[in-house]
Amino acid sequence: MSTEQGKTVYIETFGCQMNASDTEVVLARLADDGYSQVDSVDAASLVLYNTCSVRDGAEAKVRGRLDSLKPIKRERKDLRIGVMGCMAQRAKEELIQAHPHVDLVVGTDQFVHMPALLKRLEQEQQVVATDFGFFESENWSARRREGVNAWIPVMRGCNYNCTYCIVPKTRGREKSRDPNLIESEVRDAVANGHVQVTLLGQTVDAYGKTLGDGTSLAKLLYRLNEIDGLERLRFVTSHPKDITDELLIAIRDCDRVAKHLHVPAQCGSSRVLRLMGRRYTREGYLDFVERARRLCPGVEILTDIIVGFPTETDEDFAETMSLMRDVQFDGSYVFMYSPRPGTGAWNLPDDVPEDIKRVRCNEALGLQLSQQEERYGRLHGQVLSVLIEGVSKSNDQRLQGRSQGNLNVVMDRAGHDDCIGRCVPVRINGSTNLTLYGEHADQEPTLVGTGGLDFLRLDI
Ligand code: SF4
To answer: Which has the closest alpha carbon to 238: 267, 209, 260?
Structure first.
């Protein structure tokens, strides 16, 4: 693709993988319009921030970036500055008032029109485009970073209204994409060397519902599982209520699908879960875990946990810790509650002091790490299927890859460069609480997924 003289874009992306994927799409659209990507504001004719609203800290960073661009814009009047993503959608008026030097405010569904919006700036002082209007039937070609993985959004938006979450406000109602387009994008990605594809959706396990023709994530997995050259297929993030038996069986039966689920529990107290609007109880979540491990043996279950939600008591937090002990999650992302304007919980008192939130966060993380260390120790001697991503960044004598459950695995490199981009058997012979170490093995993996190892007994 040839680029036009002087058309250069610097883009910075905050937040989740959906944002990273949107950045890839917008870069492809801009490349079609003659832009080349540069890695500094100084070299750019267009500066874009693709923003996140999940925590105030992420928004504060963008406000800081915009403040620092003010004197630059004074010097370089032709510099175009744009804000896209969730913050643009949530806080457009506030952004324009506080940062009048911003030229473009582009919402979460409108960024695909970036070249046309930039054109409008030739006639208009400032362009604000934040209508919802998702293009389910449009091909979303993307300018992907090099590497084994390609992120492909299969749906957008969310029909749940968890009271701590800004996503339904910033990304609108749930909308699923046409499976034919998804399949063709996956085939293109594989042809371009992305041997792993991760399907993205805020509630990805609800995929297909809005199409109204019986399409489901399970059916999509069976279909994509047929694609030659695809080494591994993943999907994130799931809601426990949408994980059907049909989906669990598809994960079990499709050999290219990672035996891996990321299903946020958020909390172990049914009282707090009700306040969070999660639509399940502690028992409901444990039922899901039992069903998942029964129908899909070895499936790895990762979770998100929020500590310090309004009114959370020591007893509520103890229930979260006991849920973590009961389930023995294969990984946990722990967050401190951050109130967001426009959410259902905004009007609740943020009454758990910051230092208590921090203590609970550290306790939950500490528990996860100690469980992980123990579990990694039990994997010594086992042979896992590892998708080798490349040379380890910290030691060029080693290769780095990921197990089915996304565990970080490092193996000796000598004579094995041909393993890069392939799933290979690795015998585990060492570990820390964050990394597994091993060597290439000349045998089939002994474990398909490593989840629930020794934990199949659940006291529920
Ligand atoms: S399911 Fe809940 S937490 Fe997840 S995106 Fe929807 S509203 Fe947010």
So the answer is: 260
Please indicate, yes or no, if residue 455 is contained in any of the structural domains.
no
Ligand 1 contact, 167 CB (< 6 A): yes
**pLDDT-above-90 percentage for the chain:** 84
Structural element, H or E, at residue 301 = strand 300-307
Burial of 107 (0-12, 13-18, 19+ CB in 10 A): buried
Please tell me the distance from the alpha carbon of residue 340 to that of residue 167, in angstroms, as a whole number: 11
The CATH number that applies at residue 429 is 2.40.50.140
Mutate to test the pocket of ligand 1, among 160, 205, 346 (most ligand atoms within 8 A of CB): 160
CB of 169 sitting under 6 A from ligand 1: no
Question: Looking at the structure, do residues 351 and 218 belong to the same domain, yes or no?
Answer: yes
401 and 370 in one domain?
no
Verify that 196 and 47 share a domain, yes or no: no
* C-beta of residue 265 within 8 angstroms of C-beta of residue 276: no
> Which pairing describes strands 46-51 and 104-106: parallel, antiparallel, or unpaired?
unpaired
Tell me the CA distances in angstroms from 343 to 70, 161, 163, 348, one per residue in order.
31, 8, 6, 10
Show which of 65, 94, 129 is a domain's final residue.
129
Cα–Cα distance for residue pair 189/230, rounded to 1 Å: 9
Orientation of helix 354-378 relative to helix 314-327, angle to 10°: 10
Q: How many angstroms separate the Cα of 179 from the Cα of each of 78, 218, 250, 432? A: 42, 12, 16, 41
Contact 426, 440 (CB under 8 A): yes
Please report the atom of ligand 1 found closest to the CA of residue 277: 2
pLDDT digits (tens, 9 = 90+) for 419-437: 999 999 999 999 998 899 9
Q: Are 338 and 366 in contact (CB under 8 A)?
A: no
Closest protein CA for atom 4 of ligand 1: 202
Tens of pLDDT, residues 220-265: 999 999 999 999 999 999 999 999 999 999 999 999 999 999 999 9
Best residue for ligand 1 mutational test, from 18, 19, 55, 202 (most atoms within 8 Å of Cβ)? 202
3 C-beta neighbours (distance < 10 Å), count = 15
279 lines ligand 1 (CB under 6 A): no
Q: Is residue 136 part of a domain?
A: no
Is the minimum distance from the CB of 273 to ligand 1 under 6 angstroms? no
- Domain containing 12 equals 8-129
State if residue 236 touches ligand 1 by the CB under 6 angstroms criterion: no
Counting from 1 in the atom list of ligand 1, the atom nearest the Cα of 165 is: 8
